[in-house]
């Protein structure tokens, strides 16, 4: 399974960075958001699952750094900062700006996902519980940011003139909806997977004869 997860993660990165999306992202906000979601909500979790529990897993070496709740807060800061008008304009205008943005998204995504799912087996229930909280917090802030973009009465990005028949505001609304659907659901699903794992461990422990 690890090889499958690795291949899926690498394919997601290739789709985000080597296909038509980088050019589309320069013209359309929703294209930029598709790139973002492919990186943090598809590539990052699958790459992290491929690394978790292997000799390449850094969680055991730096458990304090790879703590799920601080990682969630760190990702919040990075994601919201890159969606501020100034930095967003930088990423859409300059290749080096887009490179910095996408690298930040990938590293922040791996940080939170590996913090939640990494570590040696058998898993520490405390880390799993913290992972549930961290992923649910991330799902909440992704959903909140997406809702702000999808429901805003005016375009946040004044430098953007729209894409094709869509106005700048319609493009922004579509991008916000992509963040809500893909980002919110991906992180919520990760939290639910960890929750199910914790419940199974608890039931298995209760079922063991005294």
UniProtKB/TrEMBL annotation:
- Can you quote a single GO CC term? plasma membrane
InterPro entries of this UniProt entry?
Caa3_assmbl_CtaG-rel
Q: Report if keyword Transmembrane helix is assigned.
A: yes
Entry keywords, A to Z: Cell membrane, Membrane, Transmembrane, Transmembrane helix
Instruction: Name the source's superkingdom.
Output: Bacteria
Q: What's a Pfam family in this record? A: Caa3_CtaG
UniProt membrane topology term: Multi-pass membrane protein
Segments traversing the membrane: 28-52, 64-82, 94-117, 129-153, 173-199
Name the record gives this protein: Cytochrome c oxidase caa3 assembly factor (Caa3_CtaG)
Species of the source? Maioricimonas rarisocia
Lineage at the top is:
Bacteria, Pseudomonadati, Planctomycetota, Planctomycetia, Planctomycetales
């Amino acid at each position: 399974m690890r090889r499958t997860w690795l291949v899926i993660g690498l394919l997601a990165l290739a789709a985000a960075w080597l296909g038509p999306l980088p050019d589309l992202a320069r013209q359309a906000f929703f294209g930029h958001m598709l790139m973002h979601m492919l990186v943090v909500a598809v590539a990052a979790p699958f790459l992290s699952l491929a690394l978790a529990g292997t000799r390449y897993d850094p969680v055991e070496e730096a458990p304090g750094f790879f703590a799920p709740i601080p990682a969630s807060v760190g990702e919040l800061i990075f994601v919201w900062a890159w969606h501020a008008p100034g930095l967003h304009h930088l990423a859409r205008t300059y290749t080096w700006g887009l490179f910095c943005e996408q690298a930040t998204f990938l590293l922040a995504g791996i940080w939170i996902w590996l913090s939640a799912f990494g570590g040696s087996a058998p898993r520490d229930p405390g880390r799993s519980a913290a992972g549930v909280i961290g992923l649910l917090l991330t799902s909440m802030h992704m959903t909140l940011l997406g809702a702000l973009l999808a429901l805003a009465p005016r375009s946040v990005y004044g430098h953007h003139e729209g894409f094709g028949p869509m106005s700048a505001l319609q493009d922004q609304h579509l991008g916000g909806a992509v963040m809500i659907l893909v980002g919110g659901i991906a992180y919520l699903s990760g939290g639910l997977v960890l929750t199910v794992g914790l419940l199974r461990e608890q039931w298995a422990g209760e079922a063991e004869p005294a």
